[in-house]
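Researcher: We plan to redesign the surface later, but first we want a full-length starting point. Tokens attached.
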């Protein structure tokens, strides 16, 4: 089904020589197939319906469906947790393994050096805790040591139970950064960064640390005999049990991913208040006029997240993504490219898009 449509689309787009746009369209065609499969539509009907639609309609179909799924699932999380979210979403060792994005203050230098000595020498050695979070659709997401045998694998995310093809499994937590705000500090040795086609990125590296700091501060207030705050609103993005997508590993060699990214760039008016509070993403504030007016205000302050969607049924197994790193740049030794052609198209400099 996908191959036939891709051939047709390649002929249509070839005149514009815009491979990046082509890959965008292929991605959302696949997501529209998954959205219809998840709704129980049979394959022949899906093919007939989608082949009669233009690429923009595929995007709208997938975007609308997975936005509605995000709304549904987070509304359930809000109801199930009485609006307080879930404490200890991430294992403590995850926060300890993240490199700070700025040098410590002078007074903290000695303590910071000692903390770095205390951190295990590999992510895999440090991955010893387990967190289990119920998914509203009847299975569980389990954070535990990855099945990948590599020092950099660390934690992974597993499904306990059965998730269907097209299921929205998790959201990719992290700070959303506009292109003008990107710096060497953010990019360097960062395995927790994903990119939108629009140029925005999600930096998940410091998210775990910030969530742990919120929990520590709350615990210290309670331990000191003071009343806890009446509202947990500032901590809610870190208490979303679905916000574990940034812990999903890249597929190991010769294993195809079972999860795909779905970009959601959302008009704030489309989000219910309880969903907006739980969305596990915030935005790096603009630091220049270009960043403010060209990137932040031009799109009306969209809320951005990445949904992780099951490519096929997952039963009692680990989730794997294709990180789709830029093939023109150096990549870690654990990385392999599951789809060479898609990566080449994805990172082509756009001419029209």
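Model: Full-length starting sequence:
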């Amino acid at each position: 089904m996908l191959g036939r449509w891709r051939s047709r689309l390649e002929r249509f787009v070839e005149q514009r020589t815009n491979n990046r746009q082509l890959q965008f369209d292929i991605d959302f065609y696949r997501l529209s197939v998954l959205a219809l499969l998840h709704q129980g539509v049979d394959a022949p009907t899906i093919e007939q319906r989608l082949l009669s639609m233009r690429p923009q309609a595929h995007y709208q179909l997938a975007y609308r469906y997975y936005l509605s799924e995000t709304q549904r699932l987070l509304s359930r999380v809000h109801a199930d947790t009485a609006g307080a979210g879930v404490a200890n979403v991430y294992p403590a060792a995850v926060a300890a393994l993240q490199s700070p994005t700025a040098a410590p203050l002078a007074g903290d230098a000695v303590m910071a050096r000692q903390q770095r000595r205390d951190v295990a020498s590999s992510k895999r050695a440090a991955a010893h805790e387990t967190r289990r979070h119920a998914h509203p659709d009847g299975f569980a997401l389990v954070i535990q040591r990855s099945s990948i045998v590599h020092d950099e694998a660390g934690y992974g995310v597993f499904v306990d139970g059965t998730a269907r093809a097209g299921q929205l499994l998790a959201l990719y937590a992290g700070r959303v950064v506009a292109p003008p705000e990107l710096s060497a500090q953010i990019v360097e040795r960062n395995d927790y960064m994903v990119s939108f086609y629009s140029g925005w990125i999600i930096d998940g590296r410091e998210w775990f640390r910030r969530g742990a700091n919120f929990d520590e501060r709350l615990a210290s207030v309670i331990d000191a005999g003071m009343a806890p705050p009446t509202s947990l609103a500032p901590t809610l993005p870190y208490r979303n049990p679905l916000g574990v997508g940034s812990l999903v590993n890249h597929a190991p060699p010769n294993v195809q991913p079972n999860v795909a990214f779905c970009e959601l760039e959302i008009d704030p008016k489309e989000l219910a208040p309880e969903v907006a509070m739980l969305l596990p993403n915030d935005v790096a504030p603009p630091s220049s006029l270009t960043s403010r007016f060209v990137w932040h205000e031009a799109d009306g302050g969209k809320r951005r997240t990445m949904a992780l969607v099951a490519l096929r049924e997952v039963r009692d197994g680990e989730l794997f993504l294709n990180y789709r790193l830029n093939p023109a740049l150096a990549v870690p030794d654990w990385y392999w490219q599951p789809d060479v052609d898609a990566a080449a198209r994805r990172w082509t400099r756009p001419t029209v898009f």
